[in-house]
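User: Could you check the structure of this?
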Amino acid sequence: MVDKAKKIWMDGEFVDWDDANIHILTHTLHYGYGVFEGTRCYKLRNGGSAIWRLDDHINRLFNSAKILGMEIPFSQKQIRDASIEAIRVNELEEGYLRHIVFMGTGAMGLYADNPIHVSIPVWKWGAYLGEDGLKNGIRAKVSSFTRYEVNTAMTKAKACGYYINSILAKREAVKLGYDEAIMLDPDGFVSEASGENLFIVRRNVIYTPPMGSSILTGITRDTIVTLARDGGHTLVEERFARDVLYTADEIFLTGTAAEVTPVREVDDRTIGDGEPGPVTLEMQKTFFNVALGENDKHSDWLVPV
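Assistant: Sure, the predicted structure tokens are below.
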């Protein structure tokens, strides 16, 4: 259950949580034509709070809208200011922000030029894949559902309707007793998890699927790529097949919600020693040091509230 906050920003003003409603004929509700973002606000270890890579998330929101041909009726600065104010108004020290751009009421049918709306709800949200998963690793299943081909759905847009693909994969995995689904691309290579990018470690080299494939342009993915190279690790962006997962020394997932979550098992095969490996733990620790304000080199990734 979502932990209700006090107010939600909708089209330029704050309304009470329970009054943030839309009409049943909202176009995006029926057809999925919308874009969204999620980012976190962290309580910093040295005091205060900051929103994690807010400018990058807002930039991706606008890029997603551009890909879909949507024009957001607010500037990036307005969305940025509203995001900061949403945390303040709701008196949160930490939490999750969901930016959503959607088409409202008017015409129905696949083509419509209805008004575009923007909303920013915020709420408290813990570890997406559970605190135990974050600490000890999760069990994953390679999904029977394939990630979109790059020209079937423009995969660099974080679009609402695209996530039915992820929902099908996630529900399948959970019903079979796993924590998360890992999806393959149309050529059979590893793409990403249902809502996270994926990394593996083999003989101390870190591998992740390349940006030219069907993966989303992950902001936490970019963080880990940067931090790994900062730390002297060899990181290779290349395609690899599902059997490479089974023989990996380590696997971890990244995402704003999932942060850096180890994978201890895939398709009932134990990964490494069945617990988070040294590279995964290093990346996880380094990530949280940055996100919680203890790494000045990347302080520009934090937007103070």
